[in-house]
Structure formats: C-alpha cells, structure tokens
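If you are new to this repository, start here. Below is one unmodified record pulled from the training split, so you can see the exact layout before writing a loader.
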Amino acid sequence: MASPAVDEATGISLTFPDSAFTAQLLNCDFAGYVREFIETTHQGTVTWKTFKPKRHIDAGGLEAVFHHNPSTFPPITEDAEALVITFPNGTTKITVQAFMTNYRNTGTLGDKMVANATIKFSGEPVVTEV
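And here is the target side for that same chain:
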C-alpha cells in the first residue's frame, strides 16, 4: 500500500481579494468542520445511546499568525467576502466566504511585530485543484 502524500506547511497563503488583504503567514490553525447531532435515545433504548446528524455543517474557521504591517489595515470591519487559501503544493485552493472576528498585534522589544487573527468561515468551502 502506497503512503499518502505528505506536504510541508511552508507556502500556505491567505488572501481576501475583495479587500486586497494578504499577509506573510507564519502559522495557520484550522478549527475543522463541525456537524452537530440530535440525540434519538428513547425509553425503549436499552444499552447504547443513539444519535442522528443534524443537516447543517459548520465550516469552522481558522486562527492565523502573520507579520504585522502597521500600514495595512486588516479587513476586521468588512462583511463576509471570499477568502482564498492556497496550499504549499500550489495545486490546491480552498475558496470560502469568511470574515475576521478578532485581530490583535504584538510587538516585543527587539523582536518582529506579529498579528493574530481569528477568521470565521460562512457557507460551503470550495476545493479547487489547479
């Protein structure tokens, strides 16, 4: 059995094309997709609880860390817009409606300034093989 492809996490990019915001990404932590459920256990269920998946799926979002550029204002005030995530191999992109919910930056004496952002996805992500 062949081993699955493994990509190094160097070269991931995040771009909000509508607001022209892009950043030099240092770290990207995806929250993952979440599908909630309804418990269907009833009085006739003897041992194991039973569940039914809910219809709607939460696409999640991500936490990003990147170089802070004081002359570039992040799209924290914008409505949901397209977010394009390009992966290191350059052949896979995810496009999803998204918006920033949190943006903070830090600057430690003698070190580079970095920013942390929380981005919420809205709707279905579209995966494109380029």
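Two things worth knowing about this chain: The chain has a mean pLDDT of 90. Residues 16 and 125 are 14 Å apart (CA to CA).
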